[in-house]
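Q: Could you fold this chain for me?
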Amino acid sequence: MKPTNSPKTYRVKSFGCQMNVYDGERMAEMLGERGIVPAPEGEDADLVVLNTCHIREKAAEKVYSDIGRLTKGKTQDKAPMIAVAGCVAQAEGEEIMARAPAVSMVVGPQAYHRLPEMLDRAVQGERATDTDMPAIAKFAALPERKRTNPASFLTVQEGCDKFCTYCVVPYTRGAEISRPYGDLVTEARKLVDAGAKEITLLGQNVSAWSGENDKGQAVGLAGLIRDLAKVDGLARIRYTTSHPADMDDDLIAAHGEIDKLMPFLHLPVQAGSDRVLKAMNRSHTAESYLRLLERFRAARPDLALSGDFIVGFPGETDAEFEETLALVDAVGYAQAFSFKYSPRPGTPAASMEGQVAKEVMDDRLQRLQAALNRDQWAFNRATEGRTCEVLVERKGKHPGQWLGKTPWLQSAWFEGDVGIGDLVQVELVEAGPNSLAGRLRERVAA
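A: Sure. Below is the predicted structure, expressed as structure tokens.
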């Protein structure tokens, strides 16, 4: 299928991590600069961008399923133009082009700033692939932020040098690289001018960010956060995702010293067994991870903790899985993400001996998630009766109902005369497993 007409509407479907969400927003902005508008809800788009993630099991096959759904039963003049972006595009670009003739463009996560020129070629019927990995060149080519959500993302760092044996990120996103300090402060100010009240700093290993401030001094992530906290109109700062090896003293101290830095920390551990952690090429032990969390909690006693877990890593025994459950019991996570191990082509773990049976992984994941859900609900119940600041992000399901996030990244819903982007005081009155019901108290002064 070779489209011959320029698309008038688009839809970007982003999968996976928050960095993909950020990338999807920026691609949408570029298409908007071309006069292409979002397709109305329920209507087909002229251009569909599948912004893919390679972390999940059978990620590539799911892309082909999506392509099939977009083209099934449609003639050439009715089928949308399709672009595949993101990490699956980076890892399997040529294969996608060979297997899916309906795809017009394949663009990797470091090259999506070239999407407009690729679109020009596609309109002429030329299929295009770009999986180059230039060092953060894309950011200079992206359009200025003109409108954004109250809670917005800002990518500050990309890539990873840790080479965990299960992970494809070093191969799909490249080596660790930090965006310049000045660019980040400027973009943060523009986000605030465009309506952001909260900014989440993003990176594959965001705690590895480093740069020079406007005085020529070397600073790490904590220094960047301290300076962003001075931006007028910015009420909240978060960051994700971090690696335990890069959490320094200044960042720990920042949690106790910067009011705008929210009391929430996402710090993946992956397993509770030291042998499994070593096989994963994680540089921490279960004990060093727990001690690190103690230091963060000492700096900010009300800190909510989140983590990532993989069950069924090659060679994991029943006893080693029990060590993971013991670590969960010791921490008491407010939130967490958990997955069954799935081999990613080209990673060392994919060829390791001792691949764990699917039924064993299924059982372990159910047990782990039961423990994590138990602790999340317990954390939510512990916040009942508190009155806290909530950032209103969207309307709820019912008239007069609103949804927002607490400082601890809990979803809270309430009723009242407010608007999207308002900061309001809400009493948390009833906890559920995944959210809390609240009672509106008052707006927060700007």
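A (continued): The chain has a mean pLDDT of 91.
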